[in-house]
Structure formats: C-alpha cells, structure tokens
From TrEMBL:
Residues 27-281 form the Deacetylase sirtuin-type domain. One of its GO terms (molecular function) is metal ion binding. This is protein acetyllysine N-acetyltransferase. Its EC number is 2.3.1.286. The lineage of its organism: Bacteria, Bacillati, Actinomycetota, Acidimicrobiia, Acidimicrobiales. Zn(2+) binds at residues 160, 163, 185, 188. The active site is at 152 (proton acceptor). It comes from Iamia majanohamensis. InterPro entries: DHS-like_NAD/FAD-binding_dom (IPR029035), NAD-dep_sirtuin_deacylases (IPR050134), Sirtuin (IPR003000), Ssirtuin_cat_dom (IPR026590).
Amino acid sequence: MAADETSTPTTAEREGILERAWLDGTEVALDLAVAEVADWVAESGSIVVLTGAGISTDSGIPDFRGRHGVWTRDPEAEKASTISHYLSSPEVRKVAWRRRLTSPARSARPNAGHLALVELERQGRLDTLVTQNTDGLHLLAGTSPERLVEVHGSARGVMCVDCDDRADMRVALDRVEAGEEDPACRSCGGILKSTTVLFGESLDPADIDAAGEAAERCDLVLAVGTTLNVFPAAHVPRVAQRAGARLAIVNGGPTDADDGADAVLRGSISDILPRLVAGPA
Ligand SMILES: [Zn+2]
C-alpha cells in the first residue's frame, strides 16, 4: 500500500517495522494472523509468555544487542556488565553506578504490551511469564510475582556480594546522587551490585526449572520481543512444542524460531499484544 501523505503513520511505520505474518509457514495478512492467534489465546487455559527486550523498546529502553543497542555503541557498557571486571575494578563500578543513575530504565513506564499480559493473567490464562528483561516493567505493570520468572534478574534491586544483604536500587542511587561514587554495603562494607545476572554469573537453577516445567504443561507459547537465540529463551518454545503446545512469535524482526512456529506476527508489539488478548473478533 502506498503511504498517503495525509494519513497518520501506524506505530510499526514510525518504528520502521515492515508488517508481515505467517501461519504454518504460509504468508498471510497480519490482521488475519492476529485474528487466528487471538482465537488460540481465547481457547487456551495455560499460556507461557516469553519476553525479551523488544517488549520494552516502546517504553524507551534500548535493546542491548540490536542495531542501535547499548553494547553495539559502547564496549565500556559491556565491560561493566561482566562480573570479574565489576568485582576487580573500582573504576568499572564507578562507571556502572553513573550509568545506572542516568539509565532510561529508571523512569521507564510499562506500555500497552506489558499491560496486555496483565490482562491475560486477569483472564486466568497466564501460566507463567518468563522474561529476559531486567527492567522490572512486568512487575510495575501489575503481573503477579508468583507468575513471573525474571531469568536475568532485576535492575530494581541491589545486593551485597559478600553478605547477600538486599535493598532497593533507589536507596543505593540516592547515595550515588549524594556523592558516593561506589557505595559499599551498609552491613559489612562489601561490594554492592544490582540484582541482575552479569556476564560470568550463572542463572538461578530454580528459574530454569520453573521455565522448563511451565513449558511442559502449557498449550500455547507466546514469544514476544525476543530473537530466541540464547538459553533459556530458545529452550522454552522447543520444550513446549515437543510437548504438543503451539508457538506464536510476536516480534519486530526475524527470530531463530520463525521456521518452526505455528504463527509469526511481525509488527509493533505494543499494537499486536492488546489485540491478541482482546478476545475473538
Ligand atoms: Zn554486605
């Protein structure tokens, strides 16, 4: 369709996303595929949702690995996210604290995509929401903590690497703002880090188990805003499909699991997700 100069651009157009869709590998109109997957959602009593950075870009949080990603532009940011560098270098920690202070994630608010998943839970269809994101926006939107698995942890908390004392990130950032460049644990003087999983740290086995078990028992997986190329995100759809579940992918671009998916919806996540949970047309 030719763009009309006077028409209002859709969210996808504003974001430079080319809307496309496939059902069982056959390309169809996006609206048709959205209606089909909305039917699957309405029929399902047990959905696992997997989310990645793409669901939060409409909240102003940049993707780490994407074309405009933080690490693509700034290797220092990646260094600050590696546990051995972080623990051994006060300079790396000072950079990390300054970065946290100015991070867009600090003031980010949930968008329509996050809120649609809260609605899915309200409808009683959400088994488990597994997220790779550390921005805390699912909790902020209202998803129940007991339904949420944050496999890479959360940037909304801090912990002491020596005594495991935990506190709200805001408290630590207030200290940085007041002039402490590398605030230490108030209980033992140890190094404080955010409660995210840094490079070189292990994921929590309990989180991996929870994600795997949910994948086994669900009848539909919605993979949202993730390219599905890292563990355990890549693992969940595979386990679920092997156990007989359907897989629907919602993303702004191609993913590693598009080929085997029952539905691929390519477009604006914050536009598509609310339509999927609104019920059959
Ligand atoms: Zn401590």
